[in-house]
Every structure is written in structure tokens, then in C-alpha cells.
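Long-time lurker. I teach an intro course on protein structure, and each term I like to show students one example going from raw sequence to a predicted 3D structure in C-alpha cell notation. This year I'd like something fresh instead of my usual example. Would anyone be willing to generate the C-alpha cells for the chain below so I can use it in lecture? Attribution to the forum is fine with me.
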Amino acid sequence: MPKSRFITWSQVTLVFVGACYLLLGIVMIPLFPMMAAADGNEVPPAVALGFSLFILVVAAGFGLLNFVAAWGLGRRAKWAWIMTIILGGIYAPSGCMPFGVLLLYAMLNAEGRAQFEG
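-- Reply from a regular --
Happy to contribute to a lecture. Here you go:
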């Protein structure tokens, strides 16, 4: 069975959102100390750096989940289908709603399900 266009669009969406999470984590390293200083709070440099690195690790980890799901979809792995449904369910009620709805629609319609069931 040839690869569905829904799988391709899901892969593109997952890679895009994963790249956005990585970019968010990288941007927050210098941005968090500046935001804390703008509020008039005195944040020790070690705390600011630690919190910035924590944000980077969390954002990079979530971005990595997206990349792994996209890779698995390309291999038509059932675990990647389930992972994409879970990620779509997380994104749908959040600010990433268009991406979540697209992922859920692509994975749960008849053409998308047929790629991974049975």
C-alpha cells in the first residue's frame, strides 16, 4: 500500500512543531535572565542559568518526541501512530490547536487508520 498523503502531512507537521520547540528552548537561554531582570527581580546568575537550561532540556525533549514520531510514521510503525495520536490530543486543546487537529484528523480518518491497522 503506498504511503498516504496524510502520513506525509503528519510528518511535516511533527517536524515543524519539533523544530519550534527546539528553537523555543534555545531562545530561552539568554531571554529568561533578561525577562527576570525586566520585572525588577534580582535573580542570581546561577539560578537564571539553571532555569534556562531546564527549559532547554524540557523543550528539546518534547521536540525530540515529535522527531521520533515523524521518523516512526515514515517507517509505518504502529507505536508512532499511537504516539502521533497522543501528541495530537495534547496539542488540540492548546495554542497549537491547528497542528493537533491536523494530526488527529490525519491519524484517525479511514485512510490514515488503514496504514497502521491490521
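Some talking points for your students: The chain has a mean pLDDT of 89. The chain has five helices and no strands.
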